[in-house]
Amino acid sequence: MTETSRTLVKNLSALEDGPVTVSGWVDTVRDQKKVQFVVLRDESGAVQLVNPRTDDTAEVAETISGLAQGSFVTVTGELKHDERVKLGGIEVKLASLEVVTAAIPETPIAADSGIDKRMDWRFLDLRRPEQNLVFRVQTTLEHAWRTYWVEHDFIEIHTPKLMASASESRAELFEVEYFETKAYLSQSPQFFKQMAQPAGFGKVFEVGPAFRADPSFTSRHATEFTSVDAEISWISSHEDVMQLHEELMVAGLRAVKEKHGEEIKALFDVDIEVPTQPFPRIPLAEAKRIVAERGYVVPRDDDDMDPEGERQIAAYVKETYGHDFVFLTDYAASIRPFYHMRNAADETITNSYDLVYNGVEISTGAQREHRVDVLIEQAKEKGLDPEELGFYLDFFRYGVPPHGGFGMGLSRVLMLMLHQTNLREVVYLFRGPTRLTP
Amino acid sequence: MTETSRTLVKNLSALEDGPVTVSGWVDTVRDQKKVQFVVLRDESGAVQLVNPRTDDTAEVAETISGLAQGSFVTVTGELKHDERVKLGGIEVKLASLEVVTAAIPETPIAADSGIDKRMDWRFLDLRRPEQNLVFRVQTTLEHAWRTYWVEHDFIEIHTPKLMASASESRAELFEVEYFETKAYLSQSPQFFKQMAQPAGFGKVFEVGPAFRADPSFTSRHATEFTSVDAEISWISSHEDVMQLHEELMVAGLRAVKEKHGEEIKALFDVDIEVPTQPFPRIPLAEAKRIVAERGYVVPRDDDDMDPEGERQIAAYVKETYGHDFVFLTDYAASIRPFYHMRNAADETITNSYDLVYNGVEISTGAQREHRVDVLIEQAKEKGLDPEELGFYLDFFRYGVPPHGGFGMGLSRVLMLMLHQTNLREVVYLFRGPTRLTP
């Protein structure tokens, strides 16, 4: 790919003094009597432009005086290394400045604007270096995962998001007008990634959107989110899934630390830690005892954890093992979907887990029930109609290997990695019950 | 990741004779008086199992006699290299055979089943080695593209598929019940990938679903498809986009040829060709003249090509330049969306192109109009209401760099690469006007 003649800002400091062309947008202007300073930003960084006012530079000076913040410009000038310049020890003495697109002078958001206002103007909010970094980290994280998968012979699938029926629960389903009938938006690729198992694909992954008509307004839910899914054949138990899962998290965090560690420290004051393997594993019942000993009694009687319980057990794990991750295992069958396999020795618990990262659940994984008669019984127990599940149950009637996998929220991982408290800060364009724009 | 103790079939031939464990499904059984043969298949290949009938092997023999095709089994036995065995020159003499899940004996599809029937039983259809290969090729192709993008500092984005309004045309829009209001499914990430430009992201890519409520039944349309999108800042013209595009195609095809070339030749009788650069570029008006000289007059008076015209110009390019690709350029403004930039010297044509591969259009690319006043005029000309486009037009009011990009159908590329005549053969689960299952 031929780059245009511009130099990326991040590459300037490695150049020798001399003529350069840089393109980007105007971050700030300091228009002084004897000299003008412009901070120019592009996707890679910021650089100071300087224009001493003389008769020769009067034309450029006039343009700068009229520059609205945010305007996109292309400049040429002389690069000069100068240790006194705070911004990277370099500056560009302007020779020419072309305004490519002038911004209108109003700036609808400011540094202290609330999250809702900033979401209204997300494309301006994303110009902040922290936001730009979030999505470069996302890119690196996903690529590390995919590289791991590809190197381990996984097949990438794209499952349909339009379905004739619910994938799991009818409760949080979006309905679509589909020609003469109705369709539903996929809540997860669960059924379709499982389909790859009787199809003989062995190991599959998908990164794609999932939709939940969840009317709740929390800092960590969205009606549309990016789901990271894997499913593998011939496992012995959910332990095999957990091993895959922890290797992926290690690969992802290692790549992020290597490529962005310093910048994350500078902009978010966060030290990215590459976790050690194996991650701690704690059966849920034991986790509840530990949490109770710390003085917190989970206010649920359905054998599940709650968010505060997750934070407490994560704090315990951090104190005890120095680890940011913990697998909570052995969830009760009563609170797990019908397709989770039950423990052979204790029918009341499942071969499943949740993965908690920095105190918040990011994923659920499990071995799946692949014996169709057992599966039908478990569906009935949950009040589901096997007739309606017909197409799914067929996957198990013509031969299927033992299998399991997990689904994980991409943005949750990013949110927790970068110590953000709101999912909205790490999603390109958030979707919630009252948020469909921009 | 710990693999289970099984050996993948593809790895058997490199092993020395000795004990092995293999897992997979039963492809065929030949149950003879003195010896039984089973062809076992897994995600990596097929191997012959042999069981000479003796008193010692009677138990295994009985199991094999009752084996339904498609059952998933785990076997142990002695690997033996034997040149006389047609299937890879190896066989496994059985010691044990465990039926993990028995298939029901009916096989709902056969080798000669029609495409609709095979789609009903897609998970069985996908067991065919050709189908398995399609998705391994897809995996390699996408990973080669993403690796190119990541190495060239692109940012990966996930744009929302739920929108408050149409992205382009109201005509082919799916409507979603969204709490108290309506939402629409994204027809393309067009507006949102453009948003990354004023956001200062520089270069972005996305691979994700797109939805078109197109009621037509052709061999190359679907109501849901995987769209491959890129958008880059600071281009001089659509030529920069075409250069990016051809480098991606070369990177993708090179990776596919290297990893799967021989297998594609064996299963599809197709020689994957890595194209040379630059790809031929032909302005549309010239393409129509060339096609007319070949005796085909495009039966349209709107300056567009038609599918037969695309085949004809592709045939001309193949004969003349020996090339599988051709960029058709300079499409008339009358048949392009309002956001395509017009040619500065001739307002009637756009800075846009279509990419034709093996005779079929796989992509449209263009430089975008980034001057908001011009953009508004062009929208009005197309009968669009600038009010309704408000959120999109805002992207251009606060500064934006010149930019352009393309959108490409993933499955179309695969279909044409593997010389398939129907998109349904290369889509994991096809969605059409009357197809929402499985």
TrEMBL record, chains A, B:
Residues reported to bind L-aspartate: 168, 212, 364, 368
Enzyme class, UniProt record, top EC level: ligase
InterPro entries: Aa-tRNA-synt_II, aa-tRNA-synth_II, aa-tRNA-synth_II/BPL/LPL, Asp-tRNA_synthase_2, Asp/Asn-tRNA-synth_IIb, NA-bd_OB-fold, NA-bd_OB_tRNA
Reaction catalysis annotation: tRNA(Asp) + L-aspartate + ATP = L-aspartyl-tRNA(Asp) + AMP + diphosphate
Spans annotated as Aspartate: 190-193
Domain (Aminoacyl-transfer RNA synthetases class-II family profile) ranges: 135-438
Binding site for ATP: 361, 409-412
Keywords: Aminoacyl-tRNA synthetase, ATP-binding, Cytoplasm, Ligase, Nucleotide-binding, Protein biosynthesis
Protein role: Catalyzes the attachment of L-aspartate to tRNA(Asp) in a two-step reaction: L-aspartate is first activated by ATP to form Asp-AMP and then transferred to the acceptor end of tRNA(Asp).
Protein's UniProt name: Aspartate--tRNA ligase
Species per Swiss-Prot/TrEMBL record: Herbiconiux gentiana
Gene: aspS
